[in-house]
């Protein structure tokens, strides 16, 4: 049984399905077809409008060290303030009383007001501060030991809240497969350094600026690039401004287009 066939079986019991099966399959297939992180974010956002309406989402690649959780990468559409608070500069995530291992493969739907355990207060305060009333989430295993990927969907619409768990489990495996293809593996030099700088094509950019231009082309924010390269987002911002100035460009989309064009030429 293929993942698409299993998806149809999961859809069969949804009581308020307003999107035809063929359209659902097209949305899921579109996610599976994403080649880049930027493409995956866009295709996921398009699918969520129909299958799990919510304000924004985040995919966190998390490593468990002793009793703490560290976020190694964050792919998200959340407000920057929330993302910054979600992951401290050292990568440490808010503590939780949830047994992570036992949560793998399960979908959860939580209302912020229900987070009363003292161990969850960090999460409760963070969510309330950023006006997140509820969130649906699941965890799927990563390829590395003691690592997993958390899929979070914030402020799920009341219209699908009662059915959000099967909807999460319908979406998450497709996103998981596409993400594993689009995201360089840990230990892969590309994950640490970004897309390779140009070896032959002349460019006014330094190697670091080429590196950052590559991550900009992947759709990463300054904060995300800083997390990957272990530098501050203000340093990244300075590099981006230098890139714009050197190339006589005005925005990040133009940087992405420039990078793609020069990669072809090299």
The value of Rg in angstroms is 19 Å
Number of domains: 2
* Model regions low in confidence, pLDDT < 50 over at least 5 residues: none
The total count of strands amounts to 5
Query: Oligomerization state of this entry?
Result: single chain
**CATH topology group of the largest domain:** Beta-Lactamase
Verbal overview:
The protein is α+β, with helices and mostly antiparallel strands. The protein has two domains: 3-182, Transcription factor LuxR-like, autoinducer-binding domain (Beta-Lactamase), CATH 3.30.450.80; 189-265, Winged helix-like DNA-binding domain superfamily/Winged helix DNA-binding domain (Arc Repressor Mutant, subunit A). 48% of the residues lie in helices and 15% in strands. It is built from twelve helices and five strands. The chain has helices spanning 3-11, 21-32, 37-51, 80-86, 100-103, 121-129, 164-182, 189-193, 207-217, 222-229, 233-247, 252-265; strands at 56-65, 68-76, 107-111, 134-141, 147-154. Strands 2-1-5-4-3 form a five-stranded antiparallel β-sheet. Strand 1 (56-65) and strand 2 (68-76) form a beta hairpin. Helix 1 runs antiparallel to helix 7, helix 2 runs parallel beside helix 7 and helix 9 packs across helix 12 (252-265). The chain is globular and about 55 Å long. The model has no long low-confidence stretch (mean pLDDT 81).
Topology:
Blueprint: H1 3-11, H2 21-32, H3 37-51, E1 56-65, E2 68-76, H4 80-86, H5 100-103, E3 107-111, H6 121-129, E4 134-141, E5 147-154, H7 164-182, H8 189-193, H9 207-217, H10 222-229, H11 233-247, H12 252-265
Antiparallel strand pairs: 1-2, 1-5, 3-4, 4-5
Helix pairs in contact: 1-2, 1-7, 2-3, 2-7, 3-7, 9-11, 9-12, 10-11
Domain HTH luxR-type: 198-263
Keywords: DNA-binding, Transcription, Transcription regulation
Region (Disordered): 184-207
